[in-house]
Every structure is written in C-alpha cells, then in structure tokens.
Write a structure and sequence with these properties.
Layout: H1 7-13, E1 18-21, E2 28-30, H2 42-55, H3 93-96, H4 121-126, H5 131-147, H6 158-173, E3 180-181, E4 204-207, E5 210-216, H7 223-231, E6 240-244, E7 250-254, E8 257-262, E9 275-277, E10 283-294, E11 300-309, E12 316-317, H8 319-344, H9 357-363, E13 387-391, E14 406-410, H10 411-417, H11 424-429
Parallel strand pairs: 3-4, 10-12
Antiparallel strand pairs: 1-2, 4-5, 5-6, 6-7, 7-8, 9-10, 10-11, 13-14
C-alpha cells in the first residue's frame, strides 16, 4: 500500500505543532508522542544505552533515589475566607484549602518539598506537591475529623450541603406513593424512569424486561434479617428487600450497604452472591443502578437502586445534569483563560467570576458588540467568525472577568479590537467600528 502524503495532507501537516527533540540526535519528534519518549528511533535508544553503560559500568555500586519521608505536618485549619465550592470536590476543598494558592516554591505541608508552579491547581490550593501527599493529607484530615479536632459544623457551606440533602430526602419522600419505573422507548431523551433518591417499599423497577420489586424485611417475615442488621448498625434501621420476579432471587440492603443475597443454588444463607445463573440458564447480576440528576434548585442528587439485570447498566447522567456540567465546564474554562492571561501581566491569583459564555451570547442576542452584526451559533472556533468573549475594559488594563465587563464578539473582531476600551458607542467615536464595515 502506498502511504505517500497527498498535496493537501502535506500542507496540513506543516501546521501541526512540533514535538520534543530526541536527546541523542536532536531530531524533532511528532507532537503526539508521549512526553516520556526521549529517543526518536531504535538506533538512538541503543546509542543512549551504550553511553549509559560507559558512564556507569556493571561493577559500579547501585544508587537508589531517596524517597522523602512523610513527616507529621501541621493539622489543616479550615480557612473561612476560602470556602468556595469547587465542582467535583465540594467536600474537601473548604477543609483543606490554604490561605493562598501556591505559585511555586512553597514547602509542601506534608513532606516539605517545594511545590512546582506547574502542579495541578488543587494541589497548589492545598499546598501539597504530589498526589501521594494529597492522599496523605486527606487521610490525616479524616482521622482528625473523627477525633473531633476539626468541627465541620463551623465551616460555612458544610452544614448547608448536609441540610440540602436532608431537605431532598424529605421532599422526595413527602406523599410518595409506590410507583412503577419502566424502561423508556429507544428514541427517548433518557432511557429510564426514576424519581427521588431510590425505591421505596412497593415500588417496581423494570429494566429491559427484568422486573425488581421492593419490600421491607418485616413485611415478608424476615425478622432474623432485621435483627442481623440492627445488631451491626443503628437500632432503628429497617432493611429493604429487592425481589427479582423472574428468578425469585432476593437482596437485602440499607442505603449503600449490601447485607444479604439469596439466589437459586446458593447454599450458605449469608453469602453475598451478586452474579448467578437462573433456572432458565440466563446469567443475572445484582447491580446498584446509579443515575445522577439535579433538582429545580440546581442541587445534585443521585438515584440509587439495587436491580437485577442481564447486562450491567453504566452510571448515567440526565440531560439536565449534563447541561449543568457543560455550563460549569465552559465557565471554568473561560475563568482559567482569563487568570492565565493575568498571570502573563504579573497578576497572580486574579479574582474571576464563573461566567458561562453562552449566557453572555444570549444576553447580547448573538450580536457582535464590535461590528454590530449577527453571530452564527453554529460556527465554531477556529473559524474567524465564531463567537468569543470580549472584555470591554481590556485584560491588559486589568479589566475584570465579570458579566458587566464582558460582551459577545466575533473572534476576528475581538483580535482587531486589540486593547481598545469600551463597548458599542465608544468604538464608534474612536472610528474602530468603521474598519469592520463590509465584513461578512
């Protein structure tokens, strides 16, 4: 097969970013090769091995890199000024956050090694140098919370989250009647029906023809199971039984804790056998179904249900939760881009508001505020006429990243505007808008 590049392919490769040079011959490797690859070919790799053998003979004593000892560090003190909620880390961020984000060179609060300026932002927020020290800090903090050395109730936001979960439980459980949750049609926006945080006694969950019903252990006469659970948990805990109609298999659980299963052919009554073969020869598996959604207040919650299915169902996000996650991703990306530009001007840890670019585009009715022409939402970057966020007071003049200082603009208009200051009318007076007349 002829693998020669065509003219168009050769032109497209010229614009690709270059990779790292080979440490032996200096040849620039492809940009997509991993950073751990140091040599461009096998001869260079052999030359490097030969050079290493010459510098370190076989009879030379071996030296190992010393691993820094994890010395006991100071207990993390919750910083009330930095109790912001970070997406994906809503529990640990207000507890472990330091007073200021590390910029590079600060000592790690666990091993005292200097923190790299290129470390992940969460590590620099907590003043740790690596994932190992981050895990150690979490473990130590969890121990101190258990000892009562850190009062979670005193941290702003922590009590609010706990209250929100309790409010969700009360609201979803209020006047809740047993229901049937079915598998929706293939063309539906979401494949399964669900409601609240999980099934209640009397509910029926159908997943691709497999039916699971739910009842309390007391209602089916399993008093020994109630005694077992209460002897190893809280006194008033009532286990729930999930019953598979096709096979008669049973599963007892409380919350996320699995206590007992009974499946066809199982001998010991306390063996937790989650995968089994039914009398019809089909293979079944007990799975804790997980669906993530947001309520009308924008608070995240999870539907969890032990269901018996023929094939495992992956964790799912509802369209509402997916849209909110995309919104957070866009706003975080815009904020990080602004902070990176401010660091280029010497301003570290610049304040920036989480602003979704889509909200600004819709506020400005998808109209470029520089050339006053429509922006096509279907056009994406790097098209010159794609939508971008423009800072009315430029970033070079310490313009803030807030909705009042942001406007929609074509990418090409944003570039041509440069460091000019002001929206709409200000550009007209400066004669800037006239330079865009005739642009499509």
């Amino acid at each position: 097969m002829d693998h020669a590049l065509t003219t168009d392919e050769a032109d497209s490769t010229s614009s690709e970013p270059s990779g790292r040079p080979c440490v032996i011959c200096g040849t620039t490797m492809e940009y997509w090769r991993p950073r751990s690859q140091k040599y461009c070919s096998d001869p260079c790799r052999a030359a490097a091995a030969k050079k290493q053998r010459a510098e370190r003979p076989k009879d030379a004593p071996k030296t190992r890199r010393t691993t820094p000892a994890l010395t006991p560090g100071p207990p993390p003190v919750p910083d009330l000024a930095r109790t912001r909620e970070v997406a994906g880390d809503s529990y640990w961020s207000p507890i472990l956050a330091a007073a200021e984000r590390a910029t590079g060179g600060e000592p790690c609060r666990v091993c005292a090694e200097p923190i790299s300026a290129k470390a992940h932002w969460s590590f620099r927020d907590r003043h740790v140098c690596s994932d190992r020290c981050n895990s150690t800090l979490k473990r130590r903090t969890k121990t101190r919370i258990g000892r009562g050395e850190i009062d979670l109730a005193s941290i702003p936001g922590m009590g609010t989250r706990a209250a929100a979960k309790e409010e969700q439980r009360a609201r979803f459980g209020q006047e809740r009647q047993p229901s049937v949750f079915r598998t929706r049609a293939a063309d539906a926006d979401f494949p399964y029906e669900f409601y609240g945080l999980g099934p209640i006694p009397g509910d029926v969950v159908e997943r691709h023809g497999s039916i699971t019903t739910y009842a309390t252990a007391t209602s089916v006469g399993a008093d020994w199971l109630v005694d077992l659970v209460r002897a190893n948990s809280e006194d008033d805990v009532e286990p729930i039984l999930a019953i598979h109609e096709q096979t008669g298999a049973l599963l007892a659980y409380t919350g996320r804790t699995l206590w007992w299963t009974s499946v066809p052919g199982q001998e010991h009554p306390l063996v937790q056998q989650q995968s089994f073969q039914g009398d019809d020869g089909r293979r079944w598996v007990w799975q804790n179904e997980l669906i993530r959604d947001v309520d009308e207040n924008g608070t995240t919650y999870d539907w969890e249900a032990w269901v018996c299915v023929a094939e495992r169902i992956p964790p799912l996000w509802t369209p509402a939760y997916t849209a909110r996650s995309e919104k957070q991703r866009r706003s975080t990306r815009a904020r990080n881009s602004y902070q990176a530009r401010m660091r280029g001007y010497g301003v570290l840890n610049a304040d920036a508001t989480q602003v979704d670019p889509q909200d600004i585009y819709e506020r400005d009715q998808w109209t470029c505020q520089v050339c006053c022409k429509a922006i096509n939402p279907a056009v994406e970057w790097p098209d010159p006429w794609s939508a971008t966020l423009d800072h009315i007071k430029p970033v070079s003049l310490a313009g803030e990243h807030v909705p009042e200082n942001l406007q929609a603009a074509h990418w090409v208009c944003n570039i041509r505007k440069g460091d000019a200051w002001g929206p709409g009318e200000a550009h007209t007076k400066a004669g800037v808008r006239g330079t865009f007349q005739g642009q499509g």
